[in-house]
Amino acid sequence: xxxxxxxxxxxxxxxxxxxxxxxxxxxxxxxxxxxxxxxxxxxxxxxxxxxxxxxxxxxxxxxxxxxxxxxxxxxxxxxxxxxxxxxxxxxxxxxxxxxxxxxxxxxxxxxxxxxxxxxxxxxxxxxxxxxxxxxxxxxxxxxxxxxxxxxxxxxxxxxxxxxxxxxxxxxxxxxxxxxxxxxxxxxxxxxxxxxxxxxxxxxxxxxxxxxxxxxxxxxxxxxxxxxxxxxxxxxxxxxxxxxxxxxxxxxxxxxxxxxxxxxxxxxxxxxxxxxxxxxxxxxxxxxxxxxxxxxxxxxxxxxxxxxxxxxxxxxxxxxxxxxxxxxxxxxxxxxxxxxxxxxxxxxxxxxxxxxxxxxxxxxxxxxxxxxxxxxxxxxxxxxxxxxxxxxxxxxxxxxxxxxxxxxxxxxxxxxxxxxxxxxxxxxxx
Length: 429
Prior knowledge:
Elements: E1 6-8, E2 11-15, H1 42-52, E3 58-61, H2 68-74, E4 81-85, H3 89-98, H4 104-126, H5 140-143, H6 146-160, H7 165-182, H8 197-202, H9 207-228, E5 234-238, E6 253-258, H10 271-281, H11 286-290, H12 292-295, H13 312-322, H14 326-349, E7 350-360, E8 364-365, E9 368-369, H15 372-383, E10 386-395, E11 404-405, E12 415-416, E13 420-428
């Protein structure tokens, strides 16, 4: 253990390399079903649940993302309920599928039938004996080569005919990741960027084979999960907004384990952009798909820097950013204004003695690092009684994040992105 021995709100903040899990396999059970930006690794969620949720019955992840915390909750025997909340339909779908046990005998049977139909349709289409309806969304030809579009349409059509809803959703998750893998995007990015012309020439994906391989991997993973999951834990995936009054009852939650967004989606992790192509292929409303980043935390900048948030650290940080760029300072403030609304809702749904565990990134804006871990503490402690236990600082060896970015938005001016996370542990008094 390496310690900076920083005393903070009666708790201790220190760097602890035991939280790195550098050599650990992160895709066990159903955790490897679908990539997602800035995913919490399962080892972190598992350790937090084991340390702070020994007597907990109800877990909540208010920013569920790919469902890591929920999946880990279903692998612990003490939980009776696990709630996940998100505004992104793709996150909801992935989380639902990850935490829905399905007998793999059924999956293998449906898999063989589906693949046979897909291959038959492909033969008929290639010989012009059959027409396949293709989606009509903007720039589809920009993001997908013609043969890829045809093959994706074949797969989508046959999935739509699957009668078992759980099986259909299971197939759709594999389909969603296939969409991303065979598209003309630079797949290591979470924002939408098209491949270079040189890469496009080499890009000749076998769409159906890609889908088949992903399905086989996911079914194999489900075999392990089906044997290990807690049958007494009811999972509820809520298409709601943690800034508002949710359907969770007052004081129902014993434990929160979550990794909130690092900042507004427009300038940090663009969850909407990452999800866009998949959601378009899945048939979601075009406007809602395009608006995901806009309606996310901090999606609409504030008009000025006036606020009544109870965080001296935030106030000082905003001033430092505003001295360089007032507009970017407003972007930052908008995120924390929205996050404070979440704080109020989380206070409502948690019971006295509940632990709240936040895995956060301290991003840099205009050369100023934003200490989100300290701001979160101050937002909770401003209006309510919360005890700070510890803040662990971990290195990020695995997280799906870009290695470099352009923090100044000046071409050629790059900086290193976040390579550490802060795990904040507080207790409701």
